[in-house]
Design brief:
The protein is of the alpha+beta class. The chain has ten helices and twelve strands. The protein has two domains: 158 residues, Ribosomal Protein S5, domain 2; 116 residues, 2-Layer Sandwich (Alpha-Beta Plaits), CATH 3.30.70.890. Helix content is 32%, strand content 29%. Strand 3, helix 1 and strand 4 form a beta-alpha-beta unit. Helix 1 packs parallel to helix 2 and helix 6 packs antiparallel against helix 7. The longest helix is centred in the middle third of the chain and has 16 residues. The chain is globular. It starts with a strand and ends with a strand. Bound molecules: adenosine-5'-triphosphate. Adenosine-5'-triphosphate binds next to helix 1 and helix 2.
């Protein structure tokens, strides 16, 4: 085998709480992550020389050593003394800098892919350990599905996911949000409303989508909405068009709404996409990465 194709899936957050800050600057979080069926396709082919060449249909991502995929390949090459080169093509569908872990998901996919391509036989746990060196969301993107993420996001407990009967309307307004800046505005001691993750986990377990949607909460939302009121307008549009609930994902600016009825989600999509090109109706998925899928 000298080539491999990967599906690299996005995530949304059903909740985010920030509990504190570590000395190294990382925030301590408690959040529910959910993989969705919006994905980038990554094709990896071995080269005769030792170079890593990245190409993409997107002009929004770096193609050099700043690309998280490049960093992941480099780390794997150095850790396991592999001196093979690779041609990598990233077909970007996940909106960039959106709060959907697009970069982390690509890095996760390449770690899973190289484990196969180079016959390294590493366990998922070992891959997650390697991924954590490059980013706190990468371990979740490797395992995928639905999880409560604690610590800096790397301590994962698998939980029951959203039903695939639920349609998820995802809308990314055309503005750039820096994850770092949003987190820097948060002082965990001054947060006065937090998500009730226990309740949300119960709702998922008992398939109580309406209750879940009404109780979703992201402590980062206020920070980003204050800066970009358009996020609130998208939420309102979803709520006024039959969403059970709507919330910002990650540090934004993507907003998602949960729908019992797919037709309602599609109707609201047609309203939103007049203004926001990157609008999708998706469902949840159980795997973050799929090889040759
Ligand atoms: P998170 O939810 O983890 O904060 P995000 O969805 O907000 O992630 P990304 O799409 O991962 O953000 O992009 C963040 C930055 O990382 C972008 O500015 C982009 O230039 C850079 N980047 C590097 N490599 C990649 C990649 N493979 N895909 C997307 N972005 C990448």
């Amino acid at each position: 085998m000298n080539s491999i194709k990967l599906k690299s899936r996005a995530k949304i957050n059903l909740s985010i709480d920030v509990l504190g800050k570590r000395q190294d600057g990382y925030h301590l979080v408690e959040m529910i992550m959910q993989t969705i069926d919006l994905y980038d396709l990554i094709e990896v082919k071995e080269r005769q020389d030792k170079e890593i060449i990245i190409k993409s249909n997107s002009n929004e991502i770096p193609l050099d050593f700043n690309n998280l995929v490049y960093k992941a390949v480099d780390l794997m090459k150095n850790t396991f003394n592999v001196d093979k080169g690779l041609d990598i093509y990233i077909q970007k569908n996940i909106p960039v800098a959106a709060g959907m872990a697009g970069g982390s998901s690509n890095a996760a996919a390449i770690l899973v892919g190289l484990n196969k391509l180079w016959n390294l036989n590493l366990t998922e746990g070992h891959l997650e350990e390697i991924g954590l060196k490059l980013g706190a969301d990468i371990p979740f993107c490797i395992s995928g599905g639905t999880a409560l993420a604690e610590g800096i996001g790397e301590k994962l407990t698998s939980i029951e996911g959203l039903s695939r009967d639920v349609s998820i309307l995802v809308c990314k307004p055309d503005l750039f949000v820096s994850t770092k800046e949003v987190y820097e505005c948060i002082d965990s001691k001054e947060i006065n409303k937090r998500p009730n993750n226990k309740l949300l986990i119960e709702c998922l377990k008992n398939n109580q989508t309406k209750k879940l949607a009404e109780n979703m909460f992201n402590v980062l939302e206020e920070v980003t909405v204050n800066k970009y009121p358009v996020i609130q307008r998208i939420k309102d549009t979803m709520i006024n068009n039959k969403a059970l609930g709507a919330m910002m994902s990650g540090s934004g600016p993507t907003v998602f709404g949960l729908y019992e009825n797919r037709e309602d989600a599609i109707r609201c999509k047609s309203i939103l996409e007049k203004q926001f090109k990157q609008t999708f109706v998706v469902v949840c998925e159980e795997k973050g990465v799929e090889v040759n899928g």
